[in-house]
């Protein structure tokens, strides 16, 4: 699972996100063909989405033997970036998108965006700057901007949800099974998504085996985004979505 996260971190946030950010107009608007030096307001708080140019994307595609692999990573990157943007906007922080070949000036600070990883985020607040990845935004944003959050241990993010699922005894058995049938050459794989169940937001996490020619799903879990302790399971026989406790009783 850690390899899955690391893989995402290397290539996060590829294409346009699912929502337009109107607030970014108050800072700056940019296109790929504009001047490479941008002056930003040092008195505003904002998050910069560092975007690769089309030329950069084309060169990256050539590093893959199979272009489909590139688009698989792009889909994951698009999902996590959209989640990060929604989370940032909910906390009333402005965002803007700048290409990686740009130079920016914030007050007396000059920055070349090319020094940072493409598809990462640059947080700015009161002269302070921090580079983070979209997958880490829910833990990094409150601390950097000193946003008061609930102290409940039940608060959830995708990393915590994945760790909880990976540590379930049933999933550990699946992991050992994949190790055995692949002679330790493969690892249990995870697929993630988001959805609503009864008007509540959940992470959907599928466990399975990613073979050379197909994906085989083992179990589908649903984790409440507001409470990681609430785990539901897709019962494959009936098609019902039931609690983890009830699922375990059925499968004793």
TrEMBL record:
This is Lipoprotein.
């Amino acid at each position: 699972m850690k390899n899955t996260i690391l893989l995402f971190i290397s290539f996060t946030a590829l294409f346009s996100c699912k929502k337009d950010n109107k607030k970014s107009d108050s800072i700056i608007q940019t296109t790929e063909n504009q001047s490479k030096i941008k002056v930003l307001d040092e008195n505003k708080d904002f998050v910069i989405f560092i975007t690769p140019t089309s030329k950069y994307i084309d060169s990256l595609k050539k590093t893959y033997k199979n272009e489909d692999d590139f688009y698989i990573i792009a889909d994951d990157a698009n999902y996590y970036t959209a989640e990060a943007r929604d989370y940032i906007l909910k906390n009333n922080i402005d965002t803007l998108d700048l290409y990686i070949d740009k130079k920016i000036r914030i007050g007396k600070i000059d920055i070349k965006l090319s020094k940072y990883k493409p598809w990462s985020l640059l947080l700015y607040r009161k002269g302070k700057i921090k580079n983070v990845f979209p997958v880490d935004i829910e833990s990094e944003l409150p601390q950097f901007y000193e946003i008061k959050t609930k102290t409940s241990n039940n608060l959830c993010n995708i990393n915590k949800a994945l760790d909880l699922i990976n540590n379930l005894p049933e999933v550990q058995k699946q992991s050992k099974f994949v190790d055995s049938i692949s002679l330790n050459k493969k690892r249990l794989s995870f697929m993630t998504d988001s959805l609503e169940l009864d008007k509540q937001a959940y992470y959907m996490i599928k466990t399975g085996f990613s073979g050379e020619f197909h994906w085989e799903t083992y179990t589908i879990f649903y984790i409440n985004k507001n409470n990681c302790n609430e785990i539901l399971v897709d019962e494959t026989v009936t098609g019902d979505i039931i609690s983890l406790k009830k699922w375990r009783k059925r499968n004793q």
